[in-house]
Design a protein that fits this description.
By secondary structure, the protein is mainly beta. The chain has three helices and twelve strands, in the order αβββββαβαββββββ. Strand 7 and strand 8 (114-116) form a beta hairpin.
Length: 165
């Protein structure tokens, strides 16, 4: 079976972004506190790496305001979002926003990390590796604790906007 493909085009940043706009991705918010107050960011690059040991990864651009917090933190919480959380995803994706101000509802875990209320699921991670990767950083975390919320439709990011499955 032959799969028809378009003619190869040199890959520049614009084309690369256009290609990945066609890839639907789950939406998560990563929160941490490296001693300078709660910080968080929306990510769509979350990936399960291993079940035993439980490892995950995500990436952040080097220019992200949250990168210095993740760089200096020993732990973080990854929150999986569902269809109810479009506004929350936008808040944590907005540069300069007070992401933890009302209406964001959150509390601290006994270990100190910020935990968003009502996430579909969450994973507290020990940050084990931070690797420079182009203009970004790949972060690898070992899952130390997890929680499940109620089962709802996941929030997806596709072609520049949020969608419910």
């Amino acid at each position: 079976m032959t799969i028809a493909t378009s003619r190869p085009v040199p890959v520049d940043a614009t084309l690369f972004r256009q290609v990945f706009r066609r890839h639907a991705a789950g939406v998560a918010v990563v929160t941490t506190d490296a001693g300078r107050g709660a910080a968080g960011v929306t990510v769509t690059s979350l990936t399960s790496l291993s079940a035993e040991p439980a490892l995950l990864s995500f990436s952040l651009t080097a220019t992200s305001s949250v990168w210095p917090h993740i760089r200096d933190a020993g732990s973080a919480v990854v929150h999986l979002l569902d269809a109810r959380h479009t506004a929350l995803a936008r808040t944590f994706a907005t540069s300069g926003a007070d992401r933890f101000a009302a209406p964001t509802r959150w509390r601290r875990l006994p270990t100190g990390e910020p935990l968003l209320d009502d996430a579909a699921a969450w994973l507290r991670i020990a940050i084990e590796h931070r690797h420079p990767a182009g203009q970004s950083h790949l972060v690898i975390g070992r899952v130390e604790e997890a929680g499940l919320g109620d089962g709802r439709s996941p929030l997806l990011y596709h072609d520049g906007s949020y969608h419910a499955l």
